[in-house]
Amino acid sequence: MTYPTPPGPPIYEYPRRRYGLWIALAVAVVIIVVLAVLLVTQRGGDQSPAAQQTTASAPATTVAPLPTGAAPPAPPQSASMTCEGYTASVDESSQPGWHAAINRLGLAYAAPPDWTVAVCGTRTGWVQPCPEGQCVIRELGAVSTVANPTCPKQNLGIAGVTRSANPDIRAALDEEMQTVSPIYTRDGNAPNVEFAPIREFQIGPHPAVQVVATVRDIQTTECAGPGAYHSIVVTTVPGVEGSVVFVISLREGATVTPNANVINEMVATLKSPA
Fold it and tell me: Is the pLDDT of residue 83 over 70?
């Protein structure tokens, strides 16, 4: 398969409603200048960094809900969401069908129409075997997903927000980049990871940095192919210690190919509360 160079600063058009917003049956869901308007109100607290251990059982690096009790049902999808002291809204006139997502870290984004935004408080992430059992590589809140058409119980697209203890956004980005290879390692077989140049931009008045990794040679399964895109954005949010991180993972499926443009579209919707 051919992996295009991940695009530069986001300018985008509304995606047409179709399965998963993918090209060639693409998974996750150029581009004209239309910014989704996300209105974010109130301030909230910070979120602890991901725990280093979980009891989830998996033979290799795995994407799974972190243990928080019984998984809640998916909520009705909406252009607005209130969670832990923050409210985020999508301007439906500019991006009809998109869903607002936010958590206690206050960084809001919009998910494409065919993605599902989890209920407030849901966590997911990647774990790997370690001497203690299963250890968390990265944990995400404000979760949205798109299902794998071949294996519907799995997700090929995952997005979410987390926190870094490092207040230096470039240093925090460097730390987050170290998680990419472990996330896509299977049974000790590490993939090939190539990072695009780091992009600097603004989310409102706040500086932000982004890198997109093209991941190749992932060990395949009957549900997933050998490639992925992995986007990391790091910025700051008033009232939150350290940095706030927005992650998008787009995995190649058994019969579908990821489209990097969905990364641009989602990053363009990021909104800080102040």
Answer: yes
Judge whether residue 51 has pLDDT over 70: no
The average confidence (pLDDT) of the chain is 79
* Residue recorded with tokens 């997700």: 155
* Position 77, amino acid: Q
pLDDT of res. 35: 36
pTM of the model: 0.76
Write the CA distances from 231 to 21, 77, 84, 132, 255, integer angstroms.
17, 24, 25, 29, 22
Which tokens go with 31? 């581009």
Measured CA to CA, the distance from residue 188 to residue 174 in angstroms comes to 23
Query: In 10 A of CB 5, how many CB atoms?
Result: 11
* Helix, strand, coil percent values for the chain (each to nearest 5): 10, 40, 55
DSSP the chain: ---PPPPSS----PPPS-GGG-SSS-S----------EEEES-----PPPPS-B----SSSEEEE-SSSSPPPPPPP-SEEEETTEEEEE-TTTSTT-EEE--TT--BEEE-TTSEEPPTT--EEEEEEETTEEEEEEEEEEEEEEE-SSSTTSEEEEEEEEEES-S-HHHHHHHHHTTHHHHT-BTTB--EEEEPPPEEEEETTEEEEEEEEEEE-PPP-SSEEEEEEEEEEEE--TT-SSEEEEEEEEEEESS----THHHHHHHTT-B---
Q: What is the pLDDT of residue 92?
A: 85
What's the pLDDT tens digit per position in 147-160?
999 998 999 999 99
